[in-house]
Design goal:
This protein has 13 helices and 14 strands. By secondary structure, it is α+β, with helices and mostly antiparallel strands. It has a single domain, classed as 4-Layer Sandwich (Glutamine Phosphoribosylpyrophosphate, subunit 1, domain 1). The strands form 2 sheets. The protein has a 9-stranded mixed β-sheet with strand order 5-4-3-7-6-2-12-13-14. It is globular, with a radius of gyration of 20 Å. It binds aspartic acid. Aspartic acid (ASP) binds next to strand 9.
Length: 397
């Protein structure tokens, strides 16, 4: 239904970017002024080869906070714009400082997991028996290294455990109690189940369990077969808080060294059966990254994203079909999936960002080294500079 269009930087944003960032990429990753070969190559791409060619960014970041049906009347848009801007600023500052994309997507997703407004980590939806089971994945586009966890119950930041699975084990995907136990060994922060519950999600859970509603039915089953915008089986009305049933989170980034990374985290779908695993931790379905093509993070009806290996399909259309990132993302979301299934964010090796969805809303944000700083929920996009840039540029806030 909608695409967040590439909004080229305006003169004002470019001026602010120069003020705020100076000569982006003029110093090496260690701040010494030395440039690695890789960074030099990236800067060459950034500068463009011919006169009149638009500059490519030296880093780029996109985030999402879930796709689905969000009612304008009941969604506290200002609150969500603020949350998205905060997460975007965090990642943008780290990329600007030369942090690796893999670390940045982990940090941004962990921050969103800690934010109770999102359905990941704290604030996760409830299973049909009132518990929380969390899924997450992370992937390094440089090496195709990846890690994922499914159905964990006591890990504060599942994305950080996914990174440990990727780096410290021979495995890619760990699930259930074994994954939770590995969290103890890996030393990641743990929490009791009550930590993940929020009043907002509890209220939704109670409403949905009320007699005459979808009591006890797995949203995974219903969400896969229901026409209309994905709601995580929450029904068309989002109720107080508006978007409590959406809000899976994800981040994709290209860093100054040209490396891509993706990370996604979710509480899954409201009233899911215990043991149900969605697309998020399935590499190639909800999460994928390859330096040669794209880094992709998905959100929506997980069962559909698994069936169509959506994240990898975007990469494959670029690799084998020669499509641009934008066109590959558009085809998969608008032609392969059905209207209402969900959306994705993606970044390519040249810093191009695609944000495509076929629901009425996708909570999202995009930033790059050229001064782009956009957030959106519905079709329209709100553009502005990060607070820190405005302050540096002397713009009153
Ligand atoms: N894709 C997630 C899942 O199916 C849910 C979502 O993105 O809202 O678990």
């Amino acid at each position: 239904m909608s695409v967040l269009q590439e909004t080229g930087p305006t003169l004002r944003t470019l001026a602010l970017a120069v003020l705020a960032f100076g000569c982006a990429g003029c110093t090496g990753p260690d701040g010494t002024g030395e440039q690695t070969d890789q960074e030099q190559q990236n800067l060459n791409q950034t500068n463009g080869e011919g006169a009149g060619q638009a500059a490519a960014p030296s880093w780029a970041l996109a985030i999402h906070g879930g796709a689905g049906s969000a009612d304008r009347a009941t969604t506290d848009a200002e609150d969500y714009y603020g949350a998205l801007q905060e997460a975007l600023s965090l990642g943008a500052e780290q990329l600007e400082a030369g942090e690796a994309s893999l670390q940045v997507v982990e940090n941004v997703v962990a921050a969103l997991e800690d934010d109770p407004r999102f359905n990941a980590g704290r604030g996760s939806v409830f299973t049909s028996i009132g518990t929380h089971e969390l899924d997450a994945a992370i992937m390094d586009g440089r090496s195709l290294a990846c890690g994922a966890v499914a159905g964990v119950k006591n890990v504060q930041n599942p994305v950080r455990l996914a990174r440990r699975v990727m780096e410290d084990t021979r495995h890619v995907l760990m699930a259930g109690p074994g994954a939770d136990n590995y969290g103890v060994l890996a030393g990641v922060r743990r929490q009791p189940q009550a930590y993940f519950s929020t009043d907002r999600q509890l209220q939704r859970f109670r409403e949905l369990r009320a007699p005459g509603r979808a009591s006890g039915q797995s949203s995974g089953d219903a969400a896969a077969s229901t026409a209309g915008d994905y709601t995580g089986n929450a029904g068309a009305s989002a109720g107080p808080g508006g978007a409590s049933h959406l809000a899976t989170v994800g981040a994709v980034a290209m860093d100054r060294y040209g490396n891509l990374a993706a990370a996604t985290s979710t509480g899954g779908t409201m009233l899911k059966r215990i043991g149900r695993v969605g697309d998020v931790p399935v590499i190639g379905a909800g999460t994928y990254a390859n330096n040669a093509t794209a880094a992709v993070s998905c959100t929506g009806r997980g069962e559909e994203f698994i069936r169509h290996t959506v994240a990898y399909d975007v990469s494959a259309r670029i690799e084998y079909g020669g499509l641009t990132l934008q066109e590959a993302a558009r085809q998969v979301i608008q032609e392969t999936l059905r209207p209402g299934d969900g959306g994705l964010i993606a970044v390519g090796p040249d810093g191009t960002i695609a944000m495509e969805f076929n629901t009425n809303a996708m909570f999202r944000g995009a930033a790059d080294s050229l001064g782009r700083f956009d957030v959106g929920i519905w079709d329209e996009v709100r553009s502005r500079q990060p607070m820190s840039d405005l302050a540096q540029a002397g713009v009153p806030q």
